[in-house]
Every structure is written in C-alpha cells, then in structure tokens.
Design a protein that fits this description.
Strand content: 15-25%
Number of strands: 5
Number of helices: 4
Shape: elongated
Structural class: alpha+beta
Strand order of the largest sheet: 2-1-5
Distance between the termini: 62 Å
Helix content: 25-40%
Largest sheet: 3 strands, antiparallel
CATH architecture: 2-Layer Sandwich
Number of domains: 1
Order of helices and strands: HHHEEHEEE
CATH class: Alpha Beta
Radius of gyration: 19 Å
Length: about 130
C-alpha cells in the first residue's frame, strides 16, 4: 500500500511541476518583435532617490515568458544597485508587450530570458526623467 501511494504521489507531483516547468535550454529562444532597448529607454523613469544619490549601474531582469508569449514574472537577478532601481526595472518589464515564445520540439514552452536594464544619469538615450 505504501509503495502504491508514494508512486501515485510522485506521478501527481511530476504532472503538476511539468505543467509549470520553465525551460532554460530551448531550441528557439523567446524573442521580442520590437526593439527591447528602445522600449526600455522610452519608458524608464529614473528613481528620484537614485538620481539624487548619483546611483548608476546595470541590472539583469529575468523574465518568464509563457507559452503564449506573455510575461508571467520579472525578477532582478545578480548584482543590485538599490535606491528604487530594482522596482523600476520590474515595472518596465511588466509593461512590455508580448514576445514570441520559446520552442522545444516545435511547440511553444515557458522559458526564462534575461534582459539588461541600464541606469545611467548621462545616458546616450537621454533617459533623465524622474518619478
């Protein structure tokens, strides 16, 4: 009886986790049908605290792109620079329009994609707005 129950539990667990599995290695990576750098430059609002304190740097935002291409989640990974920059990077990521999803065996799948968000006070993009 114990063996049957534990086998059933493992099978159910695998089915649940496979439904939400996020691929890190895929045949075709997800991609945006628009210029991501331009989108970020156009929509970035430099946090006032970061601006006042001269905080600059690059954040890496890991997106979870769903099977339909929508952005399911955005998380800052790696080095952080603080002063509201992480929150702004996540806000920008959640504003992004849908992407083309990743593919495995010709089928769309959930996958991670890391996008850089650069905070530079003298940005070549002219991004100096504050909120």
């Amino acid at each position: 009886m114990y063996k049957v129950v534990s086998t059933l539990y493992i099978m159910l667990y695998l089915n649940i986790t496979n439904a939400q599995h996020v691929y890190t290695y895929v045949e075709r990576m997800p991609y945006a049908t628009y210029n991501v750098d331009s989108f970020i430059a156009k929509n970035l609002l430099y946090p006032e605290t970061a601006k006042k304190n001269g905080i600059e740097g690059r954040l890496s935002v890991r997106l979870t792109i769903t099977e339909t291409g929508s952005i399911d989640s955005a998380v800052v990974v790696g080095k952080r620079i603080g002063a509201g920059t992480e929150e702004e990077a996540i806000r920008i990521a959640k504003l992004m329009p849908s992407w083309q999803p990743a593919q495995v065996n010709g089928k769309p799948v959930r996958a991670y994609y890391v996008v850089p968000v650069v905070f530079r006070l003298d940005s070549i993009y002219g991004v100096t707005e504050s909120r």
